[in-house]
Design brief:
The chain is 0% helix and 51% strand. By secondary structure, the chain is an all-beta fold.
């Protein structure tokens, strides 16, 4: 019969859940990119690309909350640090700035309304030619997702 060790039980990080990570240090790898070295609540170390989150005030030798974004088929974990201002599902005021085209990882072009929050943060609302937005007018929108520090919105009716 296989022996089960207590320290190996329930050590899975669940996608969608938020965990407190200890930020050990910031390093530069041979690929030329900077990363945060973090330790999860179970003692495992992970890397987080720092280029997206430099404005999040993440400091080495401190704790920071991160949401487990997804786990791919190879078991690799993808993290999204909790945004310092905005939370998913909450409503905030944003104003229209301009229309912008974003390129996805699969090289797909998508149009978005680029919005500016009251705190100066930029966010993206999916483009819809029916919607007429006035530049500089603040309206309430819901934050639906945050990926790589980009905030995505949906319009309230």
């Amino acid at each position: 019969m296989k022996k089960v060790y207590k320290h190996k039980e329930n050590r899975n990080l669940i996608p969608g859940e938020i965990y407190n990570f200890w930020i050990i240090k910031k390093i530069k790898l041979p690929d030329g990119n900077n990363y945060f070295v973090m330790r999860d609540p179970y003692g495992e170390k992970h890397l987080l690309p720092s280029k997206y989150y430099d404005h999040y005030n993440i400091n080495p030798q401190s704790y920071y909350l991160c949401r487990i974004d997804k786990v791919n088929c190879q078991g690799r974990l993808f993290f999204e640090p909790v945004h310092p201002i905005y939370s998913i599902g909450n409503e905030y005021f944003f104003s229209f700035e301009k229309i912008e085209i974003l390129i996805s990882k699969k090289q797909v072009l998508k149009e978005y309304f680029k919005m500016k929050g009251e705190s100066g943060e930029m966010a993206y609302l999916p483009f819809n030619p029916i919607i007429k937005l006035k530049k500089g007018k603040f309206e309430k929108y819901r934050v639906v997702k945050i990926r790589k520090a980009r905030i995505f919105l949906e319009r309230l009716l």
